[in-house]
Amino acid sequence: MTRISTTLTGKSLPDKIAYHTVRTIVTVFCRTWCRMQISGRENFPVDEPFILAPTHRSIIDTPVSSGVYTKRMRFMGADKWWSNRQFGKLLTALGGFPVSRGTADREALRRCIAVIEGGEPLVLFPEGERKSGPTVQPLFEGAAYIAMKTGAPIVPVGIGGSERVMPKGAKFIRPRKLYVIVGKPMRVANTVGSKELRVAARQLTSELHSELQRLFDLAQTRAGESVSTREKGL
Does residue 183 contact residue 157 with C-beta atoms inside 8 Å? Predict the structure, then answer.
């Protein structure tokens, strides 16, 4: 398991400039090359940190997620991307931090809570690694757990068309349409006792799954995606 310091890094002025520069370039590219449209931005909480919870069908979902919100956000990433020290430093400067994929990484959860308590929004893909197809897969309970520990709202996001834009294994970004829908924040009280936490987290995760499926279906439709086109190939 990757060892992660709970001390927040990547908050210096050069890091913030790097983040916003890359974010601007990526957003402009997606708007022009992929005709990306974003709806629901009015749903973002004002003056409080939150957990952004997008669907995940492509590696491009991470930079796309950065384009939906004007302020800097922090991203969890698979620890393999930090195997190269220099590239890892760049990812950290851009707001990323590593997590051991497929494990209950307690250090990563503590780091996520530290991000929220530090006043910064957190991006967390609740499906975990990239999935494929029109069905939102079973979610990890990390987003619900962090929300209940911190009181931060969860903002669900459906990203439509990204699997056609850059499917798993693709080397190039295809000029297909992207449509992103930001849902209304799901608010929870952080007063749940430790005994009830697991049950409450499971219930909240179930509600998040239903909302993500709804947003994903709508985003896919607006991106021009359908089951028939997917069956014929990306």
Answer: yes
